[in-house]
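User: My advisor, Dr. K., asked me to get a structural model of this assembly before our group meeting. I'm new to this, so sorry if the format is off. These are the inputs:
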Amino acid sequence: MNKVNLAEKLALISDHWNPRVVGELNSQHVKLVKFAGEFVWHDHAGEDEMFLVVKGRFRMEFRDRTVELEAGEFLIVPRGVEHRPVAAEEVEVLLFEPAEIQHTGTVESPLTRHDWERI
Amino acid sequence: MNKVNLAEKLALISDHWNPRVVGELNSQHVKLVKFAGEFVWHDHAGEDEMFLVVKGRFRMEFRDRTVELEAGEFLIVPRGVEHRPVAAEEVEVLLFEPAEIQHTGTVESPLTRHDWERI
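Assistant: The format is fine. Below is the predicted structure of the whole assembly, which you can bring to the meeting.
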């Protein structure tokens, strides 16, 4: 039962699109990730997903709209909704989502991660 | 599917120990709350609870130790563990916990809330 300092954990992350688990509760994961550039279009059939910006900004693209997010703002993407995060510059994001979630849904991409590293 | 700005929501809260729901996903609630002073000792038999400090600082007391938390840090209190948040000065906190959680566990206090207001 130790506290987690977001900045200390984020300092351990040097790559992009590779979420690390920093906490777990009620079968949900708390993850930290850095985005830069464009991710792949995907959805999660059974899981809602929360994105909270810690530092920087990015946009979440949907098929019919875009939501711009900056530090101190969060967005919940409901299950089944196709989305693609895009970051013009590096952004630090906290994710909250079920532990069983698949990184890119059913889409396979070079960016897809199949295991969740803990830091 | 609208984004939530933490500072804008926190500006709507003028009381203490009264968490407001600002998001829901996977049967979990995202809440915002301001603490000041001492809460009551309690535990949640079936729910883990996450406290992320947005602004300020507070301490989480356990029966055998205390954890000091400041902005950008979070703590997960496992189910069944007695705890009491104490804030020498007002602090802004984001909570993440199951939607069915009871505010003060099985303890009834003047601070106990039985409904979760959404803002």
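One thing worth pointing out at the meeting: The CA atoms of residues 40 and 110 of chain A lie 10 Å apart.

User: Perfect, thanks a lot.
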